[in-house]
């Protein structure tokens, strides 16, 4: 199965004819090839986007909205094919791809199809000076969208939908680790009537294809989701060119559990917030802090529930935990489990690779619970991004707040309590872009999404995304 680049509405081979193997992580085997696109391919994609821009940026909002809705509808119609492709490419349970990834990709297009018809800008009357100002919000031109492997189509479309809704043309690159559903999106866009060149998808490695997008002098904005190190590198490359940047990066999110919470709800949600998608969600609560008075009970109940999770081939209906995305990533996650003792921790559950019957070469790892003594250990300070969580007790609100914030990241936090005053105090003082109280990953697409500190710069979601993908221009008219 050879994947091709999608440029100017057509599927084309990479100019230099360089290819990368594409793996099915659930069986550990190569099942296809993808282009490793070079600067020449990115230039071709850029030229196609540039040619499409004048017409697309002048297309009525109603027409843009209709085309985005068509894409949303087609994704929904092809849910079964897309979910299978995602599960095979990524290793995630098919049930998860069907319930979350693909429906959300469709919602991303439908949401921005609607949002663009409601987007407005400001007017400021300069009273006493006889002038009126209004803000023109114009599309930027050609923009770059670069996404990671953990939620492949979900995050890819979360960038592309607002970019094209706002009238931009796009050069996009999905992760080289999970390119399949991005490839299928090209066909969907053609079928939906998206004019050629509005979206161009180039495949390849970050260091070749991604770098060429970021370095391109006329790609004026970069929306990036991925690791913090890569984000820092992109910022260094893009800053001297004064590109607009949106960086959604890593996380090391606290899950803070007070004794007054709704226990059963907390327990079930904590299993999910720890291990959904094999723990490979930037928002997973990987540092669990539990109030001392319920610590022993929680420890016992949590470990019991985690031990019941079924690790298996993503295509089996009762699989809870599928394969990790790659051999390299499995080894990285395992390397943290290997230093547990050295870091003063103790494995309470899991910790081992798993041979799944019939898929022995797949990249499976037991969901792992580690008890730690200090928030200062590597297991609590570094992003592991796999099915691994730590737990430790706390005695006071002040203590847990200090530990929650004592990390370089600041993406999200989860708080379990029924105390209103505490909820308000903690929400104000947690240094994260999102605070979930008595829930996790409940998403309203109108809300600002993004992180503080090493978790990124800028916000996606709702009008924030439409603001990012437009340039505000103040027009001042003197009338007296
Ligand atoms: P990554 O940084 O390795 O890669 C992300 C994307 O960037 C890929 O498409 C990759 O090819 C590309 N890339 C790599 N080097 C590049 C370069 N020099 N120039 C341009 N592009 C380059 O991240 P990953 O391993 O794919 O994803 C996991 C990371 O993503 C985790 O840290 C996770 O927390 C983070 N993430 C964050 C969010 C969020 O919303 N904050 C969401 C999902 C994942």
TrEMBL record:
Gene3D superfamilies the UniProt entry points to: Aldehyde Dehydrogenase, Chain A, domain 1 (3.40.605.10), Aldehyde Dehydrogenase, Chain A, domain 2 (3.40.309.10)
Q: Which residues form the active site?
A: 248
Q: Which UniProt keywords apply?
A: NAD, Oxidoreductase
Keyword Oxidoreductase in the entry? The reply is yes
> Any idea where the Aldehyde dehydrogenase domain is?
15-475
GO MF assignments: oxidoreductase activity, acting on the aldehyde or oxo group of donors, NAD or NADP as acceptor
**Annotated PANTHER family:** 2-AMINOMUCONIC SEMIALDEHYDE DEHYDROGENASE (PTHR43720:SF2)
The name of this protein is Aminomuconate-semialdehyde/2-hydroxymuconate-6-semialdehyde dehydrogenase
Q: Which species is listed as the source?
A: Tenacibaculum adriaticum
């Amino acid at each position: 199965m050879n994947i091709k680049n999608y440029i100017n509405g057509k599927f084309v081979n990479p100019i230099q004819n360089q290819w990368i193997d594409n793996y099915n992580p659930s069986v550990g085997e190569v099942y296809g090839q993808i282009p490793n696109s070079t600067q020449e391919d990115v230039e071709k994609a850029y030229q196609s986007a540039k040619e499409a821009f004048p017409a697309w940026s002048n297309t009525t909002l109603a027409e843009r909205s209709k085309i985005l809705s068509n894409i949303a509808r087609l994704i929904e119609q092809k849910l079964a094919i897309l979910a299978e492709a995602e599960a095979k490419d990524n290793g995630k349970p098919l049930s998860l791809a069907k319930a979350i990834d693909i429906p959300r990709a469709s919602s991303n297009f439908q949401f921005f199809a609607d949002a663009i018809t409601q987007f407005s800008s400001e007017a400021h009357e300069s009273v006493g000076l006889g002038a009126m100002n209004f803000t023109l919000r114009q599309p930027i031109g050609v923009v770059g969208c670069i996404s990671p492997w953990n939620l492949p189509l979900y995050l890819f479309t979360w960038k592309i939908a607002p970019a094209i809704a706002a009238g931009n043309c796009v050069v996009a690159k999905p992760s080289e680790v999970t390119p399949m559903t991005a490839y299928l999106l090209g066909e969907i866009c053609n079928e939906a009537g998206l004019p050629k060149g509005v979206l161009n998808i180039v495949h390849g490695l970050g260091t070749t294809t991604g770098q060429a997008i970021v370095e391109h002098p006329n790609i004026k904005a970069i929306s990036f989701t991925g690791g913090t190190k890569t984000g820092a590198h992109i910022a260094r490359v893009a800053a001297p060119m004064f590109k607009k940047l949106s960086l959604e990066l890593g996380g090391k999110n606290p899950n803070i559990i007070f004794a007054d919470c709704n226990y059963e709800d907390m327990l079930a949600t904590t299993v999910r917030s720890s291990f959904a998608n094999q723990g490979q969600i930037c928002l997973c609560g990987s540092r669990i802090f539990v109030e001392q008075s319920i610590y022993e009970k929680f420890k016992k109940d949590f470990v019991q529930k985690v031990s019941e999770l079924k690790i298996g081939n993503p295509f089996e209906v009762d699989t809870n935990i599928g394969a990790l995305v790659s051999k390299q990533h499995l080894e990285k996650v395992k390397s943290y489990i290997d230093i547990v003792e050295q870091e003063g921790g103790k494995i309470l559950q899991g910790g081992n690779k798993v041979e799944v019957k019939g898929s022995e070469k797949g990249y499976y790892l037991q969901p792992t619970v580690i008890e730690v003594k200090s928030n200062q250990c590597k297991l609590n300070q570094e992003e592991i991004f796999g099915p691994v969580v730590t737990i430790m007790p706390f005695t006071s609100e002040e203590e847990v707040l200090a530990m929650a914030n004592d990390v370089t990241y600041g993406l999200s936090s989860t708080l379990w309590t029924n105390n209103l005053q505490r909820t308000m105090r903690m929400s104000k003082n947690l240094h994260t872009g999102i605070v979930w109280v008595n829930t996790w990953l409940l998403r309203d697409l109108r809300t600002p999404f993004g992180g503080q500190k090493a978790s990124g710069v800028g916000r996606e979601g709702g009008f924030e995304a439409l603001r990012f993908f437009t340039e505000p221009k103040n027009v001042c008219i003197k009338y007296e």
